[in-house]
Design brief:
single chain; 27 residues; mainly alpha; 2 helices; flat
Length: 27
Amino acid sequence: ETREDLKGKRISKEETKAIEATGAPTI
């Protein structure tokens, strides 16, 4: 998913870092 999708889901910065590390959203 794109960063725009992450913004829409209101993911926290910590979760965003984890997502970028794994390359896939956890939510």
